[in-house]
């Protein structure tokens, strides 16, 4: 069981979201932030770095958006649904952009394949949490 789920299970108040969906999203967003940070660093070590500049930029942007998103969705006290929706939508957008770019390089760079997979998982998790908020 993830720490996100354990903490949600100990939350002293009630909240209106499915704890399983929220925990899965938290885990996916954390994983994506780490994967994007690692992929950008790996890109910097590649001999064809000039071809990877856009990938590096999108990975770093995605990691930053994911980090902000996980911080917002981890807070349940005095929850603001409008803000949460906005950050989840931004996160899904960042993950789509980064995942698309990493996919372009996935045949040549395994770290891009792994990152693209993490981005797709995160994008899907954000969209599932958005749907659960309806």
Structure notes:
The protein is mainly α. The protein has one domain: Substrate Binding Domain Of Dnak, Chain:A, Domain 2 (Up-down Bundle). Helices cover 78% and strands 0% of the residues. The chain has five helices and no strands. The chain has helices at 3-10, 19-44, 53-73, 81-105, 110-133. The longest helix has 26 residues, at 19-44. It is elongated and about 50 Å long. 36% of the residues are buried.
Helix content, binned percent: over 70%
What overall form do the CA principal axes indicate?
elongated
Our count of helices gives: 5
Derived from helix and strand composition plus strand pairing, the structural class reads mainly alpha
* End-to-end CA span: 26 Å
Just name the CATH architecture.
Answer: Up-down Bundle
CATH class category name: Mainly Alpha
Q: Give average pLDDT, whole number.
A: 93
Strand content: under 5%
Largest β-sheet summary = none
Structural features:
mainly alpha, Substrate Binding Domain Of Dnak, Chain:A, Domain 2, 5 helices
Question: Could you give a quick summary of the protein structure above?
Answer:
With 134 residues, the chain is mainly α. It has helices spanning 3-10, 19-44, 53-73, 81-105, 110-133. Helix 3 packs antiparallel against helix 4 and helix 4 (81-105) packs antiparallel against helix 5 (110-133).
Task: Describe the secondary structure blueprint for this structure.
Blueprint: H1 3-10, H2 19-44, H3 53-73, H4 81-105, H5 110-133
């Amino acid at each position: 069981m993830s720490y996100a789920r354990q903490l949600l299970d100990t939350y002293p108040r009630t909240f209106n979201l499915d704890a399983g969906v929220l925990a899965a999203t938290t885990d996916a967003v954390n994983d994506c932030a780490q994967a994007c940070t690692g992929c950008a660093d790996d890109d910097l070590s590649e001999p064809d770095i000039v071809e990877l500049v856009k990938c590096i930029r999108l990975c770093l942007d995605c990691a930053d958006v994911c980090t902000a998103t996980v911080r917002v969705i981890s807070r349940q006290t005095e929850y603001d649904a409008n803000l949460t929706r906005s950050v989840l939508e931004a996160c899904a957008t960042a993950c789509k952009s980064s995942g698309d770019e990493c996919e372009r390089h996935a045949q040549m760079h395994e770290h891009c394949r792994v990152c693209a997979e993490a981005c797709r998982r995160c994008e899907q998790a954000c969209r599932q949490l958005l749907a659960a908020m309806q």
